[in-house]
Write a structure and sequence with these properties.
423 residues, alpha/beta, 5-stranded mixed sheet, 29% helix
Amino acid sequence: MGERNFFDDLEGMDRKEREAYQLEKLKEQIKRAYENSPAIRDIFDGKGIKPEDVRGFEDLEKVPIIRKTDVIELQKKYPPYGGLLTVPEEEIQRVFITPGPIYLPHQVEEISWFGKSFFAAGFTKGDVVINTPTYHMSPAGLLFHEGVRAVGATVVPTGVGNTDAQIKTMLDLKVTAYAGMPSFLMTIIKRAEELGYNFRRDFKLRKAWFTGEMLPSSMRKVFEEEYGIDTYQCYSVTELGGCVAYECKEKKGMHFMDDYVIEVVDPETGKRLKEGEIGELVATPIHNPCWGLVRFGTGDLTSYITEPCPCGRTSYRITGIVGRSTEAVKVRGMFVVKKQMEAFFAGIEEISKYQVIVERKEQRDELYLKAELKDESVDKENLRRRLEEEFPKNLRVRLDRIEFCEKGTLKEEDTLIDRRKWD
């Protein structure tokens, strides 16, 4: 397979043209799902919705969100594919299995969805890539493999584990690129150093493509500055069968994949949110010929930006996954995400322990911070002003008050506490 320039596809399309194209494909997908998928037909009929009621993207709000737990229950009701299959079973080319279990029917795409992501990461013909996810049952190994081949690079299907064998393979084959999780690449590097190698000098690895877990900025800095590895992230969702968003050379957010209609919504209401507001990422595949999933809720919290990217790709971008919907508390209409909050306080060296608490007073949410200090002699007023300024910049909601406590005051271990009662 030769190298393919994926940028010639939809990526540079005028935004209005893209929206018209995606809306047409969305309507086709919903019609196909309604006519061929008993589960989707049940959901639509239960809400009194017909495919023709979805005239624009905003009409998706009428459709209930389907989550992983719903898919598991649907596969019990309509075994084995949950009533979501939209083609005869004999047309399925392969079936992946994910925890649940969930059986994912799949057809080989003419154009690999992951190919766009690898192309954006600079993978090309001449690269030798170790592909480290499992090839067993899960779709990861095989789909990444096809993405690497789509850009013309050579794949070495090493799979998971066996760090010493990975190291020998990388040396023998002069591997130039890595696909997998960032934590595993760091494990490989540290083991190589234990064996006496100078990784940057002795290995040819200069590119890395990550998915499966988020890449902390601190780890990215180590990869790029200490080891000379150019790193890229891809956001993929197993139940959706592919790459949903991916980084380009600018590394300023992950571009929406054109094969999905992507929404960022309030997970409680399903209402679409505005640019910059944190909500759950919901996606509807529009190029999957056999899977009738509509409005799949990933459970991942993110926000999006519409600013055009200097790379020339015209899609919107997600700003990164900041947490799970089960790890967030909605305060005055905005989500305070535990993971994001903990990352913020990790940079406040003066604080040894803290709790962010939300209460309900006079029909208003009140958010306040209780914190223990490492050193009582710290300038409390200066720290208070800093927190009052920086907390809303990072969490998008203001603290109503800040209380500095004596050491040993904070007994609960949880850092984000919701004490509101809705009697």
